[in-house]
Structure formats: C-alpha cells, structure tokens
Specification:
single chain, Aspartate Aminotransferase, domain 2, Aspartate Aminotransferase, domain 1, 7-stranded mixed β-sheet, 3-stranded antiparallel β-sheet, 14 strands, about 15% strand
Amino acid sequence: MSRPFNFSAGPAVLPEEVLRTAASEMLDWHGSGMSVMEMSHRGREFISIYEAAERDLRELLAVPQEFKILFMQGGGLAENAIVPLNLSRGAMDFVITGAWSEKSQQEAGKYGRAHIAAKAPGYTGVPEPKSWQIQDGSSYVHICSNETIHGVEFVELPDLKTLGCDAPLVVDFSSHVCSRPVDWSRVGLAFGGAQKNLGPAGVTLVVVRQDLLGHALPICPSAFNYQLVAKNESMYNTPPTYGIYVAGLTFAWLKRQGGIAAMQARNIAKARLLYDFIDGSQLYVNPVDKAVRSRMNVPFFLRGDDGQPLLDPTHPRNAAFLDGAKAAGLLQLKGHKSVGGMRASIYNAMPIEGVQALVAYMRQFEQRA
C-alpha cells in the first residue's frame, strides 16, 4: 500500500528506504545479535556506526578539517542557550527574520547582552547586511538561515568581514541543513536539530570551528561544553545512539542520491513548482518576498470571499481544505499556530511526486471553492 505524503515541519518525513533498512535491522544489526537501541555507545559496533555517520556527513557537507562535528542532544531550542554558554563574552548580535531567530535572541539574553542588529518587518524578508548594526566587540552574530515558521531563507550566508566585523557567524540551519551547500569560509558555528532533514528527533548537529572551543562560561554544564564534547568524540555522555544510527542511514541515502548538489537541484524544482502555482492562483497567497522564499517550508494562506487571507484556522474554508487534503493522502499541512494558514514542508525526503499531488489537490480545491 502506498504511503501518504507527509508535509510535517518536523519531526518530518524520512526516506522510505531508510525506514525499511532500520526496520529490517531492528532486532539484529549486522549479525551482532543486538538492536542498535541495545548497544553500548562505547562498544565497537556502535563506534563503527558513529564513525561512518561522521565521515559521511563531513563528506556530504564538505566540512573542513578545522571544524569539529558534534552529535549532541536538546534540539535547536537548547542550542539557543548552549551557544552563548560556550561563546558569549558579554555581547552578542542577532538578525531577526522570524520566530526562531527571535527565540534565539530572547534565550541568549540570559547569558549576556543579546543585541538586535537588524529585524525584518513582518518576517517576510531579510534585512540587507549593510544595514546591520553590529556591536563593537560582539562575541558572535547569529542568524537563522531558514525560518521554518515564516518561510524565509537566506539566499547566501553573509560575509561578516565585508561588514568590518571580526565576530564569528553562528547559523541555525536546522530546517535546511543538507539541502544546499554551506560556505564554511563564512561560518564559525552551525547547528541544527535532526528532525527535519537529517533523521529522527533527538539528535542535534553542531559544526564548530576549533578555535572557538575552550571559551565556555564557568556556569556551562559539562555535557554542553563544546570542548569536552569534541575531546570525547561526542561520547562525553551517552549520545542519542539510535538517532545517530538513523541519521547515518540518511547520510548514506543522500550520497546515493548524488549528494548535496543533486538534492539542491531537486529542491529548487520542487519549490518552483509549488510557488509558481501559488503565484498564479486567485485563491492562495504567499506573503514572503520572492527573493528570499524558503525552499523547505512554504507557508500559504487561502483567501476569503473578500480577497483577504484567512488567518482564522477555524474558518470553514480552511477546515475544508485540510479535511480534503487528509482524504487525498496529504498530511500535516496546517500552518504553525502562531501564524495560521497552511504550510507545506518539502524537505529532502519529500519526492517531487508529493509536490505534484499537492498542487493537483490545490487546483481542484480552488476550482470547487
């Protein structure tokens, strides 16, 4: 039986091939007699899983050797505290382009001066980097390179050196990691929860330049101290072993698909298909500046009879759209509760057939509306 298309923002769709492999190995991983869930994280079996995952991810993202790859816990939300606990020297700067960068700024304020260097009006665009007001002596500049809720994505990472800024760039790339290449020459640290493009919830990826290690605040818990985690190869405490295993299967799947360049091409095609339909429609609208629309998370609204976007999630037209979508095998299209409307998350594991099915349903619904 064919599976429905899951447009959840996270935890999100995983490649079916990965799920089938994990299922087949659930009771006995490679003749070990153990499930990966039962293995010691220090045993040779799991160490081989971890080393393969780290190696494949470094290859996929072309991570330079001067960066350490850490597999941690707590998700992107916890990293909003863990980053300043490791990097803050008092002053930090934040570019606010949506809900997640806003949360990051608010959390970091507990550990220093979390200054807003720029803020996008209405969270529908990205402020021009030349307009950013970065503090002298800032510990780091934080951006969320793809806003899951508002659907705003940086076209390219800013080059802080061209702004006369020596602070490292910290990037929350949770919702589009492995969907496009990363220019590591512009990055000091990047982090992301796994549950969108990398694997199941529970794993948090941190890629940190080694010269940024060793500066944690005295109050930083040992398990969150990047230097200790790096020194112990992500084994300072028990890591999320099963999540790392599934993430490793996902990395291997990505390599078989042709790597990041191939995934980027697919993601461009999927996003273009959906945005082009929305822009040509009389019923649907996407409010984000076309120049910075997310390839991963596509929020959209249905219009009411007056032509205005329907923000009320209980409006009969919104409810009818979601009920019809579910009946058509199109799941998790309801927008985030803070903004309403709809949202289609079309991560790496979403095939173009899923986007084609969504567009076909949206067209049919508009014809009936």
